[in-house]
Amino acid sequence: MAADFPSHRLLAWYQKHGRDLPWRQTKDPYAIWVSEIMCQQTRVDTVIGYYQRWMQAFPTLKALAEASEQEVLKCWEGLGYYRRARHLHQSAKWVVEDFDGVFPNDLSSILSLKGIGAYTSAAIGSIAFGIAKGVVDGNVLRVATRYLGIEDDIRKGATIHQIQTWMDSIIDPHRPGDFNQAMMELGATLCSPTKPTCEVCPLSSQCIAYATASTASIPYKSPAKKVPHYPIGVAVIKNDQGDVLIGRRRSDQMLGGLWEFPGGKQEASETAEETVKREILEELGLDIEVMRSMLNVPHAYSHFKVTLHVYECRLVSKAQEAVAHVHEELRWVPPHELDDYPFPKANKTIVEHLQQ
Ligand code: SF4
Fold first, then answer.
1. What would the pLDDT profile of 147-171 be if each residue is shown by its tens digit?
2. In the chain, what are the domains?
3. d(CA 191, ligand 1 centre) in Å
């Protein structure tokens, strides 16, 4: 099967039809690393602007290593999955310290960097250093299972392993970076989930799913587990000057290092207003009055969903001092200065509401 794979047709198609993305004009491993991390779980259209701004702010690995965490998170703001930005930052410092600032050029060292798994190490290794290691992402899984007529569940490790072995056996050793990108590009464009355009596909003459009209049933993906939903009570506490109270999340938490309006999970036995009062007393030691509902913000993370029920609040007595029991730091900030702080996406909606 490997010997029969029409590599030359795939590469010719990619050369002619591949999208002109900014990170495809470089072999700089740092730039490729940034683009690959940004493209995880995020659409390419969204990534382009972020990538360009990031490369302007931190044009080299050394520049990233020397930046503050707040600068890094601010540049990533809105892209989601903030751990990716913190891992880039930590790994950049590590490369400067342990590799003299030179990005490592072997797969096992690349794999040892934070936030880099099998897919990303193969992508960087093949594109930047010409290492013949196949990539397996969602797009490649779709192309490969259709091409080979594999009906097994693509959530299973055994299926992924089978595709990885196949990719490693067919990758073009002379152009591994182009080959990997061509397979991913084919999956992102022609071999789409619902309406693949097989008639113009360079693999169609040997594709089993096309020959057997089974592109609707391949790939098979078992149903995902139901995602839990949590209601969250959030307080926008204003003082007499109109400043609002925000807190910086601890670095060992999800969304660590980002700022937020304080609050927490609603218990089954309480209303959202009661949640806000309780959480603010527990987290900040403040007794507050809940004035009015401001807005509700639904937001989905990878493994759960939340709805933020946001309330405008004020201090019952002005003499109280907020204490950071769960945050790394608290600050009173005028609404027009909130843009200086990196917020997670759902909290950013509250910021925009306050600035209207
Ligand atoms: S022929 Fe169709 S199903 Fe097969 S790889 Fe190409 S686009 Fe995908």
1. 999 999 999 999 999 999 999 999 9
2. 7-211 (1.10.340.30), 229-355 (3.90.79.10)
3. 5
